Structure to design on (180 residues):
């Protein structure tokens, strides 16, 4: 009887852990790199699910930064692959408690949103992002190394002391895709 109870308790505990592990993270259901006007453009859609500690920090007014990086490379058989271009974008997501508004900033531009879901939609979607301007030969093959992640290094210093062992703050995804 005790063995059966222990087995059921372990199963329930593992099922709860699996649900919790799937509850946070980043998925890329759609990503494509295409040639356009002598360069390369990237389209992507990410599904982002924030962990409880990240969402709690946001609701307390701590800004969180998300970064998208893309590197266009040309394969070579005789040496390392040739890096044609490397670009990145950084979004700052913050909550304004006095106005109950979510603010997304990209460089000098910022936009306010009434809900966290709407703000995250802006951060997780890019259409026609120009990742390579020139140097793209139409007859050569290229590929893109893409990363989208939460940049914990830009958090306030007191928060950085405790983040080393916390997996809740490690949100990100990497993909390598061919240029069409």
């Amino acid at each position: 009887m005790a063995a059966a109870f222990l087995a059921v308790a372990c199963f329930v505990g593992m099922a709860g852990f699996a649900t919790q592990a799937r509850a946070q993270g980043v998925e890329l259901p759609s990503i494509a790199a295409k040639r356009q006007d002598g360069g390369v453009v990237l389209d992507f859609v990410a599904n982002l699910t924030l962990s409880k500690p990240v969402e709690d920090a946001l609701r307390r007014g701590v800004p969180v930064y998300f970064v998208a990086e893309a590197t266009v490379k040309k394969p070579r058989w005789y040496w390392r692959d040739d890096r044609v271009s490397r670009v990145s974008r950084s979004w700052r997501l913050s909550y304004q408690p006095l106005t109950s508004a979510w603010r997304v900033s990209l460089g000098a531009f910022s936009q306010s949103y009434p809900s966290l879901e709407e703000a995250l939609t802006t951060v997780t979607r890019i259409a026609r992002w120009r990742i390579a301007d020139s140097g793209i030969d139409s007859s050569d093959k290229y590929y893109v190394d893409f990363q989208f992640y939460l940049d914990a290094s830009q958090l306030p210093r007191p928060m950085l002391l405790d983040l080393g062992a916390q997996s809740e703050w490690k949100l990100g995804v990497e993909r390598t895709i061919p240029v069409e």
Remarks:
- The radius of gyration is 20 Å.
